[in-house]
Each structure stands twice: as C-alpha cells, then as structure tokens.
Design a protein that fits this description.
Blueprint (H helix, E strand, L loop, with lengths): L3 E10 L2 E11 L4 E5 L6 H9 L4 E10 L2 E2 L5 H6 L2 E4 L6 E5 H13 L5 H15 L3 H4 L2 E2 L5 H15 L3 E5 L7 H18 L2 E5 L13 E6 L2 E6 L1 H10 L1 H5 L4
Helix pairs in contact: 3-4, 3-6, 4-6, 6-7
Length: 248
C-alpha cells in the first residue's frame, strides 16, 4: 500500500459537490504532480486532505501509512506527518514569524536542544530559503510578497520534515531565483528524509527544476489521466482539452 492513499473521495463545499470520486496514491520519496484547469478541484483536494472543516467528505477515505485519517482534525493530521503549503496563505496578526517557527521547531526537537540552539536552527533555515532576519520579527505573512510567503512555507516544511508534503501552486508569484530555492529544498527533503510530494500547479515551470515521478490531470472533480513527465509536455503543447478528450 502507498504511503498516502486517497480512495473514491467525494467532497462538498457549501452543499455543492466539487470532488466526484478522486483516487490517488503518493509514496514517500516520490514527486507526484497534479495539474488541471481552473475550477477542476485541485485546491479543494489539498484542503480536504488536510481536514479543512469547510470541505465536507461525503464518501471515500484518506489513508496515511495504512491508517484511516479521514475523521482526524487538521492538527492531528499534521502531527502524523502531513503538511500543506497553501495557495494563498493568510496573514496572522499578533503572531511573529519567529514565534511560529520556534513552536514548529520545538514540536520536532522537543527538549532535546536548548532555546539558543532552536534560534540557531531557525536562522539557518531562514537563510537557506532566502528569508531576511527582519521578516522573522514581523507578523506572519503581514506585508509579505508572494515570493516571501512561499519561502516562509518552505522554511516551515524544512523544520517539520513531513512524511507527505502537499504544495499548492508553489510556483505562483515566485521569481526564477525563488523557484530554484523551492526546488532545491524539495530535492533536499526527498534525498535526506524521503518526503513524498504532491505538487499542485498549472504550469510546467517548476518541472524544469524538479523531476516528477508521476503527473496527474484533474478535470471536473476527478483525476482523469495519469502519466509521466511527457504528459505535462503534452499539456504545454496542446492544452488540457486535448489531453482529457479521450479520457472522459
């Protein structure tokens, strides 16, 4: 059995069915890429996997390392090794970024390292993703550029070292340098921790830096076709309609 298994997942949002039977498997050490046109259900899938209360699972289940996590709260899923980098992270007033990162580091290291060592780890991670120390003293995501938000989420991912990481449009609002930083750190966790990735994107841009194990196309609430890297190239050449034409 795969490390993350999505079985026949149906999800409603405000009474409307958005996901209509999604089946997907993601293994640790793999990069699965989910593509599809706007409104196909990609972000809905990411939020349902993480347990967002607005996204009601009406049928199907989610398994993480063989355990059914369908009914767990978001924080419980996170503790078991699931991580989500949001498409549009919200600002958190009154909470400094350094405080958030310290809490996350403490969750990983517990009492095994001293507070000054924790701070050193946070500074090292911030430097690795290209975050300035001044941002550490600001409220979470307040006034951050799109690229700074994405770098912050990658810093969180590096601290938490998840089993499975879901990245919703990590290439959105990011310049070339930022994209390389994201890709380098995806590769780092793949090699060092065996993290499995589900990367949601519209474009092939990030695939120039991260080689996918599998590419899936979502259309009207279902994954309708899967393949290798050549599938993303075909989408680039011919568009989604051509790719899904024979699959629905």
């Amino acid at each position: 059995m795969a490390d993350l298994v999505v079985e026949n997942l149906h999800v409603e949002v405000e009474g409307k069915e958005v996901l209509k039977g999604v089946n997907l498997e993601v293994n640790r050490g793999e990069v699965n890429v989910l593509m599809g046109p706007n409104g196909s259900g990609k972000t809905t899938l990411s939020l349902a996997l993480m347990g967002h209360p607005k996204y009601k699972i009406t049928k199907g289940r989610i398994l993480l390392e063989g355990e059914d996590i369908t009914g767990l709260e978001p924080h419980e899923r996170a503790r078991k090794g699931l991580f989500l980098a949001f498409q549009n992270p919200i600002e958190i007033s009154g909470v400094r970024l350094s405080t958030l990162l310290t809490l996350e580091a403490n969750r990983v290291f517990g009492s095994s390292i001293k507070p000054e060592e924790t701070l050193s780890v946070i500074r090292d991670v911030a430097k690795r993703v290209g975050l300035s120390e001044s941002l550490l003293n600001r409220n979470v995501f307040e006034g951050f550029s799109g690229g700074e938000k994405k770098r912050t989420e990658i810093a969180q991912m590096l601290l938490l070292k998840p089993k499975i990481a879901i990245l919703d449009e990590p290439d959105s609002g990011v310049d070339v340098d930022g994209l390389k930083v994201i890709a380098d750190n995806i590769s780092k966790l793949l090699q060092e921790k065996g993290t499995g990735f589900l990367i949601i994107t519209h474009y092939r841009r990030i695939l120039e830096y991260v080689k996918p194990t599998k590419v899936h196309v979502m259309y009207k609430g279902k994954i309708v076709v899967s393949g290798g890297e050549e599938l993303s190239a075909k989408i680039d050449r011919e568009g989604y309609e051509s790719v899904v034409k024979g699959a629905v």
